[in-house]
Write a structure and sequence with these properties.
Distance between the termini: 26 Å
Strand content: 15-25%
Strand order of the largest sheet: 2-1-3-4-5
Oligomer: single chain
Helix content: 40-55%
Number of strands: 5
Number of helices: 5
Largest sheet: 5 strands, parallel
Structural class: alpha/beta
Shape: elongated
């Protein structure tokens, strides 16, 4: 079985490298990038199960815009917003745009892992529903009623 793929997006390099290392120790396939632009470019090339996304990043694309673009490319990827600058407006906007949830920096590792696991569980359930629907559709198309359980 492949490992779960996690993308971490944060402009603060020390924080990014620290989280990447802590998640890799837990057998997750983790990639870290320092900008929204880099995240979007990478996302176009490969899927990720969960994205940990800093809301406030300097320069071109902020976290909310990155979230919008990620959800447009792969709508069922779960995105957890992370910020040191909590605001009701930004958090609400992130949730409206499809974020799974958000965490405030500094994030305790146990809290982060718990949130990642919950997001992976949600994505896994959704993936199973999609697979089941695709199988049913194939059965209808082929007229097949066979099942391994029969």
């Amino acid at each position: 079985m492949d490992r779960f793929k996690i993308l971490i997006v944060d402009d603060y390099t020390f924080y990014l490298e620290s989280i990447v290392k802590r998640l890799e120790v837990r057998k997750l396939d983790v990639t870290g990038v320092t900008s929204g632009e880099a995240a979007i470019d990478l996302f176009k090339k490969q899927p990720f199960d969960v994205v940990l996304l800093d809301i406030k990043m300097p320069g071109g694309v902020d976290g909310i815009e990155t979230l919008r673009k990620i959800k447009k490319i792969r709508p069922f990827t779960e995105v957890i917003l992370i910020t040191a600058y909590a605001s009701v407006e930004t958090s609400t906007e992130g949730m409206k745009q499809g974020a799974f949830d958000y965490l405030l920096k500094p994030v305790r590792l146990e809290e982060l892992l718990s949130m990642v696991i919950a997001a992976l569980e949600k994505k896994s359930k959704h993936d199973k529903k999609i697979s089941g629907a695709m199988i049913q559709d194939l059965k209808r198309q082929t007229g097949s009623t066979s099942s391994w359980e029969e």
